[in-house]
Amino acid sequence: MENYVDLLKDCILCPRECHVDRIKGEVGYCGETSELRLARASLHMWEEPCISGEEGSGTIFFTGCSLRCVYCQNNIIANGSFGKAIDNERFIEILFELKDKGAQNINLVTPTHFIPQIIRALDFAKKRGLDLPIVYNTSGYEKKESIKLLDGYIDVYLPDFKYYDESISIRYSNASNYRDYAKESIKEMVKQVGKPKFNEKGYMTKGVIVRHLVLPGLNEDSKKIIEYLHKEYGEDIYLSIMSQYTPLDHVNKYPEINRKLTEDEYNEVVDFAISIGVENGFIQDGESAQESFIPPFNYEGV
């Protein structure tokens, strides 16, 4: 991508549209300059079965985030306090190192604010023979215009759809317009990659999996999201209904969600999905709501 630098001089990659010059070292809401920073690059076994499988997903955790939810389990990297700067050549090397370790795909986690750098690296990597599916793992707070830049680069989209009610997205993510951006960006994702496709090992090679993390006390909002997605896309996407919400210390200011999800709450949402006809989906058991499922950010593989 020849003009990638221009996108960072007046950055409007995400819905925040900060208009900062990241090339000059300015930072917007995501907290990042044009310098690419990573916290971890390793095989990850805790994604959906068709992403991690038995061999693992080659997962790259980027520093910074354009959404920054108050309950974020990756808060240490989302707030920019942990990350190692690398250049383009090192990023390309990491992609091939993950492949050599047996990764079945390359999984880009919270990548939005580094879209130009990612495109540049993938251009070079594919010319050198990188042939793994590329997974775009995002909060769902995306501009469709930015997602369009990724057409032809991404094989599997793994967006969240976190909130339907605006008051909830404002309180927990300072994003009044989250729902509309999630809707439009997911529509563009489905348009690009089409219906789900899998290889002989059961890994998804094309498609969209929309994740929804059920939050304590917010079942009705969860149902609105699931109903919308099923009505809009049917079995053309997969839904991943997640129970892994883990209240960490920084959630103390929000007492209403400062607890784990109950089994009854989660089952109610899953039962609702089944009742409206959702068939392509993933669910979790209660053991996923543990801090041990949060990967250690220690610059492994960086």
From TrEMBL:
InterPro entries: Aldolase_TIM, MJ0674-like, Pyrv-formate_lyase-activ_prd, rSAM, rSAM_sf. Gene3D superfamilies: Aldolase class I. Keywords: Iron, Iron-sulfur, Metal-binding, S-adenosyl-L-methionine. GO terms for molecular function: catalytic activity; iron-sulfur cluster binding; metal ion binding. The keyword S-adenosyl-L-methionine applies. Residues 60-229 form the Radical SAM core domain. [4Fe-4S] cluster binds at C65, C69, C72. Its cofactor is [4Fe-4S] cluster. Pfam families: Radical_SAM. Binds 1 [4Fe-4S] cluster. The cluster is coordinated with 3 cysteines and an exchangeable S-adenosyl-L-methionine. It comes from the Bacteria. PANTHER family: FORMATE LYASE ACTIVATING ENZYME, PUTATIVE (AFU_ORTHOLOGUE AFUA_2G15630)-RELATED (PTHR43075). This is Radical SAM protein. It comes from Soehngenia longivitae.
